[in-house]
Amino acid sequence: MWKHLDNQLYRESKFADFSQAFAFMTRVAMLAESANHHPTWKNTFNKVEIWLTTHDAESSVTDKDIALSEAINKLV
Q1: In this structure, what DSSP letter does residue 54 have?
Q2: Rg for the chain (alpha carbons), in Å?
Q3: How far apart are CA 64 and CA 21, in angstroms?
Q4: 3-state DSSP assignment of residue 38
Q5: What is the pLDDT of residues 35-72, one digit of tens each?
Q6: Cα separation of 18 and 30, whole Å?
Q7: Share of the chain above pLDDT 70, in %
Q8: Average pLDDT over the chain, rounded to whole?
C-alpha cells in the first residue's frame, strides 16, 4: 500500500474509471480537511497518486501522516 520514499509516504490507487477515482479523492479531501493535513496528489484518469509529508517538521513523515494514511486505507 504505502511506500516510504524521500521522506514521504506514497500510495498509488487504481479504480475502474475516472468517476470512481474522483469520488475517492473527494472522500480523501474530506478526511484531510478534518485533520487539517493536506496531501500532495495527482489524478490521471483512473489512477490517484498521493504523497504525505509534514512540511512543518522539515518535510518528514510524522504521526499526522501515519494517521491520515491509515484513515485513507479504510476508504479503499
Answers
A1: B
A2: 12
A3: 24
A4: coil
A5: 999 999 999 999 999 999 998 888 889 999 999 999 99
A6: 19
A7: 100
A8: 95
Which domain, by its residues, includes 20? 3-73
Query: Which three three-digit cell numbers place residue 21?
Result: 477515482
- AA identity, residue 54: T
Tell me the C-alpha distance between 53 and 32, whole Å: 12
d(CA 25, CA 49): 10
- What is the C-alpha separation between 18 and 71, in angstroms, rounded? 22
β-pairing, 40-44 vs 8-14, is: unpaired
Three-state secondary structure call for residue 13: strand
CATH number for the domain harbouring residue 63: 3.30.1360.20
Q: Which residue has the higher pLDDT, 56 or 73?
A: 73
- Give helix 63-73 / helix 18-35 axis angle, nearest 10°: 140
- Number of independent structural domains in the chain: 1
